[in-house]
Design a protein that fits this description.
The protein is of the alpha+beta class. The chain contains 18 helices and 43 strands.
Length: about 850
């Protein structure tokens, strides 16, 4: 009910208050987003650098700050919990104690971060004793989590009441996120990272340090799979590989069992290890209930014989029971076999962004952070060494002039420091150090000792400066320190990985098929089954392949399998590697996906060439050709990369870009065709192999206004198909592009010349749009800038001499032009002459 009542200013408790109206929906949305981000960043998700959530980080740092290290006596857990609550974590004491307990449970943590004394719970689900009864301190390996934290290696944030600072992240000198794993549920997302073997993870880190181009296969030679603290058996490797490749996967974990004979012709199943996070008491109850309900047959007795020597769960079978059948039913119906869903979600970019990471990305993020830690530690050590050396320089001056120093100090009233600074040209720090020393200390200074310390400091300063100036040496120190941690704390695997027959791998779930990959000028990419385009007769109008934005057009067409690798070359000279199935599939007329959602391209960067391969061979090369006639050759394996941001393949001039990239065998003839109808054929050995950052050499000399439109390998027994912008084309025998040698034999031309006439360019034909080396059994696909594609048999296009104008291959709508040509394998079906044109 509303009341009409006026208020005087003196009746209001806060007369200066301002009441702001806000829409309820908007206020709820804003508040919920803020709450969600608080849970994501400040509670539920681990940081990729140290693998810890805020509460765990605060527990470890508080224990370190309080002196509860592994070499000190245990203290009551209540002490640690109280300090964490009072200093850094203003939440419930139960939440802090529960988090600390987990860090001390050998069935939860692969490598304990807290050394617990007392009852910290059991695998049966027994709760820990109250924190007033248990004691705790940091474990030995936790020393490596906090090592060098006092050397300005990490950033610090104010605590909740801004009375002290807390570390934003711990130095974490071993990859704790992978080693101990993490699990948590945030708002709208969850993480579930399994623990791993320390030795394997550090070996993988060393592999990346030694070979930055190592692949997932190389990493899995070291990290074979998760390593759970409770042991167990992982069935198959497909789920592991999927998780390591994509950040998501599922592994099947079984209990470790064995058959044991007892009595007269009786068998029992002995369970010695359980899947991770399985409650043994609850498991036994579940089995007993199913036996009682007759859902499990063949079991006569069930008991737990676990003692201090290890786990032993006994399942006695009836005399006529088949042990393997009973065990299979137990795996199927109980937690003796369970699924572990892997979601490798962590906070990256300084805790700003939650992201699902592959194995390689986690290792890269960790190693990048460790390089930062080592750099900051070295800068700190350098600064301290320089400060001490500066101080020693003053003390050495005092030693050389000890009598005069004593006289100045004794004869000065209150300005001894100033007098010392003026007399010996000292600064304030040096003079203060001399003044702070007792007189007896000044007389007893040992010059040899001071000089030895000063010389040692000079060596340290030079070493620190050398480390900071040479990234490779810094990575060498990181490698050495990781090896030391591995050798000190590494152990054998606990979890066995068992290969299974007919295992389904991630790629086995994706049907292998040949697809057409199209890329538009505005950066829309898609894949479609290649049989989307039926073969038509020469001179047809094609079918509409892509509904594009106005002024956009398809500029590239490639044929590849869904299981092939596709190398994407950009105009900035970088190359990115993806599998065919990673390119989103779309319908024939769909626009496709923006390529920036597939590749991490920089602003303004575009893809200019694509190369397809199934494997990378040592005896193969890549030859790159640019619009301005520059060519470059480098070993194919040099571009096998796992880097998230790609690698550099070619250094380009500002106004130049790639036309094509060819796979060669080291002795192929290469043909370059230009827009004005010229062509040159030279052997690739004319182009020496270069490094990835090289710019290349001249392949063809161009006339004013001319530019390269195609680069192809001159394969024996085939012809060069040249197509113009207006849809005209012809085939020409490849020997016509060779010159006559001294002995009358046909040999390639020399690189860098103008070449020979390739096409009779007229206003009717338009400039050359592209070329393709084809055989009699090939089809060719032509695409025009309106998105229309035609597929015709190469054999239907006539063979002519080099300097003729050819025949109509594709009828082009007015204002459009052919932009790309690609060779494909010929279909085994009748040409669809009568197929309707689809616009």
């Amino acid at each position: 009910m509303a009341h009409n009542r006026s208020y005087k200013p003196e009746d209001i408790a806060f007369p200066d208050q301002v009441i702001t109206e806000s829409h309820l929906v908007e206020e709820m949305e804003k508040s919920y987003i803020e709450y969600a981000m608080s849970v994501i960043v400040g509670r539920a998700l681990p940081d990729v650098r140290d693998g810890l959530k805020p509460v765990h980080r605060r527990i470890l740092y508080t224990m370190y700050e309080s002196g509860l290290t592994s070499d000190k006596p245990f203290k009551k857990s209540a002490t640690c919990v109280g300090d964490v609550l009072g200093k850094y974590h203003p939440h419930g004491d139960a939440s802090v104690y529960d988090a600390m307990v987990r860090l001390a449970q050998d069935f939860s943590m692969r490598y304990l971060l807290v050394d617990g004394h007392g009852n910290f719970g059991s695998v049966d689900g027994d709760p820990p004793a109250a924190y007033r009864y248990t004691e705790a301190r940091l474990s030995k390996i936790s020393n490596e989590m906090l090592r060098d934290i006092d050397k300005d290696t990490v950033d610090w944030d104010p605590n909740f009441d801004e009375t002290r600072k807390e570390p934003r992240v711990l130095p974490s000198r071993f990859p704790n996120l992978l080693v101990n794993g993490s699990s948590g549920i945030a708002v709208g997302m969850a993480t579930n990272i399994p623990p791993h073997n320390l030795t394997e993870v550090i070996n993988a880190c060393i592999c990346v340090l030694d070979d930055p181009e190592c692949t997932l296969v190389n990493l899995m030679d070291h990290i074979t799979g998760p390593d759970f603290p409770t042991g167990g058996i992982i069935m198959g490797r497909s789920g592991i590989r999927a998780a390591y490749a994509t950040g998501r996967g599922k592994v099947i974990v079984r209990a470790k069992t064995e058959f044991e004979e007892f009595g007269k012709d009786r068998t029992r199943i002995i369970v010695t290890e359980l899947p991770y996070q399985v409650n043994k008491r609850q498991l036994i109850k579940t089995i007993a209930d199913q036996v009682k309900d007759k859902r499990l047959d063949g079991i006569s007795d069930l008991r737990d014989e676990t003692d201090r020597n290890g786990m032993r769960m006994v399942i006695e079978l009836k005399k006529d029971a088949n042990p393997q059948v009973v065990l299979n039913n137990l795996f199927k119906q109980t937690a003796l076999q369970s699924n572990f869903s892997i979601i490798m979600l962590a906070l990256v970019d300084n805790q700003k962004q939650p992201k699902i990471l592959s194995l390689r990305q986690i290792l890269d993020e960790y190693l990048k952070y460790q390089e930062e830690v080592l750099t900051r530690r070295t800068q700190y050590d350098l600064r301290k060494a320089q400060e001490r050396a500066h101080l020693l320089e003053g003390l050495l001056i005092a030693q050389d002039n000890i009598d005069e120093v004593i006289h100045i100090i004794r004869s000065s009233y209150d300005n001894a420091k100033q007098n010392l600074m003026e007399r010996f040209n000292l600064d304030d720090v040096q003079a203060q150090a001399i003044c702070d020393m007792r007189l007896i200390a000044l007389q007893g200074l040992n010059r040899e000792k001071l000089e030895a310390e000063y010389k040692e400091l000079e060596q340290k300063i030079a070493y620190y400066q050398e480390l900071l100036a040479d990234e490779s040496k810094l990575r060498g120190v990181l490698r050495q320190e990781l090896v030391e941690i591995r050798d000190k704390f590494g152990d054998e695997r606990k979890t066995v990985i068992q290969d299974i027959e007919d295992e389904i791998d991630i790629e086995d779930l994706i049907e292998e098929e040949t697809c057409a990959f199209t890329l538009s000028n505005h950066g829309y990419i898609k894949r479609m089954p290649v049989d989307t385009y039926r073969t038509q007769s020469r001179g047809g109008r094609g079918v509409n392949a892509q509904n594009l934005k106005e002024e956009d057009y398809v500029k590239s067409l490639n044929i590849a399998s869904t299981h092939d690798y596709i190398l994407f070359f950009t105009d900035s000279g970088k190359v990115h590697l993806r599998k065919g199935y990673q390119i989103p599939e779309a319908g024939r007329t769909a626009r496709g996906t923006a390529i920036v959602n597939v590749l991490p391209l920089e602003a303004g960067e575009t893809v200019t060439a694509m190369v397809v391969t199934r494997e990378f061979h040592d005896n193969e090369y890549l030859l790159m050709a640019t619009r301005k006639g520059v060519v470059k050759r480098l070993p194919f394996v040099a571009l096998k990369t796992n880097r998230k941001g790609g690698i550099r393949a070619l250094t380009l001039e500002e106004d130049d870009h790639l036309i094509n990239v060819l796979r060669t065998n080291g002795d192929d003839n290469i043909i370059l065709a230009t827009a004005q109808g010229m062509a040159i054929c030279f052997n690739e050995t004319d182009v020496r192999c270069m490094g990835r950052d090289a710019a290349g050499v001249r392949g063809v000399s161009l006339n004013d206004g001319d530019y390269v439109v195609g680069a192809q390998k001159a394969e024996s027994g085939k012809t060069l198909l040249t197509v113009t912008e207006n849809g005209y084309g012809k085939r020409t025998e490849l020997p016509e592009y060779l010159r006559t040698g001294p002995d009358g034999e046909k040999i390639p031309q020399s690189r860098g010349g103008k070449g020979l006439k390739n096409y009779n360019i007229t206003a009717k034909t338009g400039a050359v749009a592209g070329c393709c080396v084809v055989g009699e059994q090939d089809d060719v696909m032509l695409i025009e800038n309106g998105g229309v594609i035609i597929r015709v048999p190469a054999s239907s296009i006539n063979v002519y001499k080099r300097d003729v104008q050819g025949v109509i291959v594709m009828r082009i709508d007015e204002g459009n032009k052919v932009v790309s040509i690609e060779r494909v394998e010929q279909e085994e079906e009748e040409p669809a002459d009568t197929q309707e044109t689809q616009e």
